Amino acid sequence: RRGQRAAVGLLILSGAGGCHGPQSVFSAGGADAIELNRLFAVMLVGAVILWISLNGLFFHVTRRRTGHMSRKLAEAVIIGGGILLPVVVLTALLAWGLSIMPDQRAPGEGLRVRITGEEWWWRVEYLPEGAAGPVISANELRLPAGRRTEIELQAGRVIHSFWVPGLGGKTDMIPGRTTRMSLEPVTPGTYRGQCAEFCGASHALMALNAVVLEEGDFARWLEAEAAPARPEEGEGRAIFFREGCGACHTIRGTPAAGAVGPDLTHFGSRTSLAAGILPMERAALVSWIANAGAIKPEAQMPAFAHLSKTELDRLAGWLEALE
Ligand code: CUA
Asked: Whose CA is nearest to atom 1 of ligand 1?
């Protein structure tokens, strides 16, 4: 008995302990996520009060010898608890819920970001006001704090869903359609997002980091991101072009101009590899290039296992230097 109770207690504690972290709705750092948390907290408290009241009523009735409650109490329960309370509470919650929705679709201020769900990675294009063309990046979203940014969502061949729980709600990505949402990050930091709609073999391996920067830092970053790469000469570069990597990947400032895979222009400056599932480290990058499909099933990136250890290392080093 005591053991069972302890086990249940531990289970609840460990569950509650898992509620925080970069991918948690409870680690809210965006205006919309904070608003949603408030709504959730009120609903949770309400549900707890309701649960306790109903149990109280249940005990009250079952402990009575006559086996039924007084007529007066029964009427109060049916009219008050069964009709009035739900109508008032649900109407208030509906009104509140509807009132916070328009914010999450509100137009941004200046910057737009277009995110396209691919298999299984994210194409990210920044469209600053008045710019000639988009600044293309991949697998990481950077946003300025204190400003609302409009996010246009698209999808390649199959449906996906964009969700960074710490910043705001979730919105589906549908092939052939553009869906819209906006985010207003408040606290700088790194938040993790995850594809939230089953999209194939590697759905679970489709994540991204959303990095929120102070306004000035963001402007500097975007300027650097818009600039072409400054690739080093050497064997790594030779291997990249010999193996035909440029047919799928773009590195602005070099002849590599493929659009099938992620843009690698400033690859080395990103916080993660392979759409948020590997650390940006040499060993991880080497195993990814050698056999991406072994890490991410059905990924379109072919295996380059025929390259020698030294060649893989040179290639990885060259890519890492693209900052
Ligand atoms: Cu993309 Cu699930």
From this structure: 160
Decide: 197 in ligand 1 pocket, CB within 6 A: yes
Q: How far apart are CA 30 and CA 42, in angstroms?
A: 19
Instruction: Give all domains of the chain, ordered by start, each with its CATH number.
Output: 19-214 (2.60.40.420), 235-320 (2.60.40.420)
CB of 195 closer than 6 angstroms to any ligand 1 atom: yes
Q: What is the pLDDT of residue 287?
A: 95
Tell how far the Cα of 134 is from the centroid of ligand 1, in angstroms: 24
Average predicted confidence (pLDDT) for the chain? 90
Rounded to whole angstroms, the Cα distance separating 246 from 250 reads 6
In this prediction, residue 23 carries a pLDDT of 86
277 contacts 269 by C-beta, under 8 angstroms: no
Burial (0-12, 13-18, 19+ Cβ within 10 Å), 82: exposed
CB 212 within 8 A of CB 143: yes
- Cβ-proximal residues to 83 (8 Å cutoff; 6+ apart), any chain: none
- Give the span between the Cα atoms of 172 and 188, in whole angstroms: 25
pLDDT for 153-194, tens place per residue? 999 999 999 999 999 989 999 999 999 999 999 999 999 999
User: Rounded to 5 degrees, what are φ and ψ at 68?
Assistant: -145, 155
Ligand 1 and 276: CB distance under 6 A: no
Task: Please count the other Cβ atoms lying within 10 Å of the Cβ belonging to residue 4.
Answer: 8
ipTM for this model: 0.98
Q: What is the pTM of this model?
A: 0.85
Nearest atom within ligand 1 for CA of residue 197: 2
264 close to 250: Cβ distance less than 8 angstroms = yes
Backbone angles phi, psi at 182, to 5 degrees: -145, 155
Decide: 304 in ligand 1 pocket, CB within 6 A. no
